[in-house]
Amino acid sequence: MYSEDDINSAVAAGAMSAEAASGFRAHMSKVRDLPRGSEENFRLINSFNDIFVTIGVVILLVAVGAIGQAIAGIIAPVEDYSEFFGRLPQPTDAQMAAWQSSREFTEVLTSSLAGLLVAATAWPLTEFFTRKRRMALPSIILLLGFVGGVFFAVFGAGMALAIDGSETVGALMVSFAALVAAGSAYFHWRRFMVPITVAAGAAGVAGTIIGLIVAAIGPNNLNEDVIFGLVFVAGLCVWAFAMRWDISDRERITRRSDVAFWLHLLAAPMIAHPIFALLGVTEGDNLGIGAAVGVLAVYVGFGLVALAIDRRALLVSALVYVLFALTFLFREFGAVELNFALTALVIGSALLSLSAFWQPIRKAVVGVLPDNIQDRLPATDDAPVAAIEPSVA
Predict the structure, then answer these.
(1) What is the pTM of this model?
(2) Contact at 8 Å (CB) between 162 and 173?
(3) pLDDT averages per 10-residue partition of the chain, 393 residues
(4) What number of other Cβ atoms are within 10 A of residue 82's Cβ?
(5) What is the rounded radius of gyration, in angstroms, for the C-alpha atoms of the chain?
(6) CA gap 184, 155 in Å, rounded
(7) ∠ at Cα 389 (124, 17), nearest 5°?
(8) CB under 8 Å to 104, separation ≥6 — which residues?
(9) Of 209, 109, 191, which Cα lies nearest the Cα of 147?
């Protein structure tokens, strides 16, 4: 499988002319009967070797993380709970507090050392498998390992220095670790330009801001609805950032489109989950008919947005909530034995129909939007586009 980046690279190297690249894109759009941008192409696997390498990468990162945990246990050993009580049948409150503090210190040190070793291992592997071999799936895993490792290394170190701190201190440590992780994602992007890296950095920035707000208000003064509200606003900001990348590449033939794809994938659950949680979908069987209808209405709204911007992430992220709502409605109206089957039938048929008629439906949706908005969205038909050099992000 060849990505748009590969085609642009071939043009830049002189192996293919810009006219040939444009003709190839037009031909493939005609063969598939779908405009190029609507396919939401992103490269995940080049060959089975990607899976083979990914398995090796995961095993190695798990191994070095386990080594970090073992080193932490050697540096700061802590007695097992049963051994502690066996040695001290009636420990005092001070002894219990000392044991608890020692255990917490070992846990955060374990997190820090494991994260540090994982991040330190991921970077040189990325130099080879991403920068030299340009392997997609291993690059994604290594990016997640590096940024995640940096986050846990910094968070663990911060908590080790403030082991007896309050929940506010904990929120500040999360914010600081998320900020450093976002910074590491920026340097990773400058070096390797893996599209998912921008989404990882955006997640770090969102975590930093939410953590600072939580620390400023006070964790004890917050309830679940406020947290959901903060996540929702952060999701809208990430979505707006994704649209900025999308607007800069309406034809979706550069790396910017891949960056936007991962940003949309990050923003979608951040937007969908708070909405459906506030509607009561996540509370189990206590969902009312009004809330269930509200879920379907919200999903229709998500569908209109997805059609307009030609991205399907919102529809996928909200799918589980719609399944739950439809199952509830069918059960309420007497279809107890077939409620799941009917739900699956309705959702499956709707998704397949939407996929089959995506373009004409999208054309109708985009057609009612103002001209200045239409000019910023992907075109509803496929016009020939010249190749762009791979150096363009």
Answers:
(1) 0.83
(2) yes
(3) 59 65 60 57 76 96 94 78 60 66 79 95 96 91 96 88 73 92 96 94 96 88 88 96 92 87 92 86 67 85 92 86 79 65 84 88 91 87 48 43
(4) 8
(5) 25
(6) 14
(7) 125
(8) 163
(9) 191
